[in-house]
From TrEMBL:
Organism: Rhodospira trueperi
Name of the protein this chain belongs to: Phospholipid/cholesterol/gamma-HCH transport system substrate-binding protein
PANTHER family cross-referenced by the UniProt entry: INTERMEMBRANE PHOSPHOLIPID TRANSPORT SYSTEM BINDING PROTEIN MLAD (PTHR33371:SF4), INTERMEMBRANE PHOSPHOLIPID TRANSPORT SYSTEM BINDING PROTEIN MLAD-RELATED (PTHR33371)
InterPro entries (alphabetical): Mce/MlaD, MlaD_Phospholipid_Transporter
Superkingdom as given in the UniProt entry: Bacteria
Amino acid sequence: MNRNPLETIMGALVLLVAAVFLVFATTTADLRQVQGYPLHASFTKVGGLSVGGEVRLAGIQVGSVTGQRLDPDTFEAVVDMSVLDSVRLPTDTRAAIASDGLLGGSYIKLIPGSSDDMLEPDAELARTENYQSLEDLVGEIIFLATQPAGGGG
C-alpha cells in the first residue's frame, strides 16, 4: 500500500487536536460531585432531575444531587443531595426543582428562609416546590383562557 505521507500527518494532527480538546474539556468542566453534608427533600415529581445534577443557591452551585429513591409509604420521590460545608442553611429553607431553560436540564434551587436555627447534616427539607413541566404550564394557560370572563362563580 502506497500511502501519501500528508494523509498520515493530517490524521495524526486531527487525533492530537481531539486529545487536546478532551483534556481541556475535562479540566475546565466541573463534573465531580460536591462533597459536603447530606440533605434530603421529598417531591411529588422530579421531572428530568438526575443524579449528579446541580444544587444552586442564588444561581451558584453549592451542591449536587447524590441519589433518588421512591418513598414506599408516601410514593413521593426523595432526593438526596450534598451541600458544601461552608454553606449553612436555615431550617425553613425551601427546595424547588427548576429547569435550566427549554433545552437545559433540571436542578434543585434552594431558597433560604429567615430562621436563626440551621439545618443539621442528614436533615429533611420540609418545604418543597414540585417540578412543573412546560406541558403543565401550557395546560394551565389553556384552562385559564377557556374560562368565561368575569365568572365569579
